[in-house]
Protein: Molybdopterin molybdenumtransferase
Organism: Streptomyces thermocarboxydovorans
Amino acid sequence: MSTAAPRTAGPDHLWTVDEHLDDILSTVRPLEPIELNLLDAQGCVLVEDITVPVSLPPFDNSSMDGYAVRVADVAGASEAYPAALEVVGDVAAGQSELLHVGPGQAARIMTGAPLPPGAETVVPVEWTDGGLGEGPVTGMRARSLAPEAAGGQVLVYRPAGAGAHVRAQGSDVKAGDRALEAGTVLGPPQISLLAAIGRGTVRVRPRPRVVVMSTGSELVQPDEELRPGQIYDSNSYALTAAARDAGAIAYRVGAVADDADTLRDAIEDQLVRADLMVTTGGVSVGAYDVVKEALSYAGDEDEPGSGVEFRRLAMQPGKPQGFGSIGPDHTPLLALPGNPVSSYVSFELFVRPAIRTLMGLPDVHRPRTRATLTADEPLTSPKGRRQFLRGRYADGKVTPVGGAGSHLVAALARANALIVVPEDTESVAPGTDVEVVLLG
Ligand SMILES: Nc1nc2c(c(=O)[nH]1)N[C@H]1C(S)=C(S)[C@@H](COP(=O)(O)OP(=O)(O)OC[C@H]3O[C@@H](n4cnc5c(N)ncnc54)[C@H](O)[C@@H]3O)O[C@H]1N2
Ligand code: MOO
């Protein structure tokens, strides 16, 4: 059941973190599935059951480089009394024309090559003289250097039971078996299996296309010259990287000036390639808070629930937030605060789960754990707000890095966790057991 506050909650409603998250997750829907090439489907959720069309292995084949022989011919073989067999030829991997191995005969066989008719087992080359007559060898001579080794005689020094060193047809999966179920997230091993059974494309929910747009007339792009009053645009980089890390195809747009018309035009231009829009900055209460100004009335009056609503959350950092949908396709839009730490923390808590919901992934949230707070002095937190302090987690302990300031990007770069201080807690003593969000 959704605990989201109603959209009509009113401008004075102070939203809890959970209400805001529920509002987002109850609005965002998984993307429609499409057929993708195997490698493009990496990290995506499969929406079809996959049935094995052809058994793996498709035929009995050797697991060793050696000699394919009959069991009776090598029974009782030893170094003192080796079995001498006539070599009738080579069977290489990929070979379709097979030799026949009769009594007293052997075929030199390579790993992965089909077991020839008549043969019942494989003796590794190390158990033979390799055709040289000088005791056990460590390997075969290359065909190009010693073509005669595909004929002549081989001495076998050890017996082998039926089926030894043979990978039986269907011993991995059988035709008709279920290879993968709908809902599986495709990692490298699943992609390996799909390729192994001959599937070049699969039906999955695609990665969402996320446009990350920073706003602010003070922002300059990295490598450009910094003039008085200007700062570098770090949010568009941080959040584009975070969107990719969450599984999205992310496009960075930085930085749009603090002008409502310019911003509206920029968003309209980008909507065509967005399944989700993320903006940073301009959501607070200043005279130049342009995202709020440009988007507060962007809703379609005929569409209940459309438009972007700006709200205050009972959290720190990340108090001012906007959420809603825009454009003809009602593209979801999350407007995050401009302070770098606020935008990053907001991304982790709200945008990442939205991206993963669009992908249909089962786990949309970062993992959480409990840890013992290690600090020189108690942590302080504002009453009534859930605080997410940056921390360094290891071995069941977490240590704060930097303070609570939302501009502390250097400390953020050293953190690997967020320390959660609940709304009703104003002070946390060292040694206390605290909740931690692991940032991975
Ligand atoms: N009178 C009040 N002022 C503020 C309040 C408030 O309640 N009353 N809330 C504060 C909080 S909390 C936050 S968070 C910020 C949010 O402000 P905006 O979302 O409007 O963001 P800006 O004003 O555009 O920027 C804030 C800060 O961050 C820097 N910034 C912005 N974009 C980037 C970027 N892409 N890369 C790096 N740094 C960026 C910007 O220069 C400002 O320093 O409002 C508080 N004020
Ligand atoms: O909410 Mo602001 O994000 O505290 O810095």
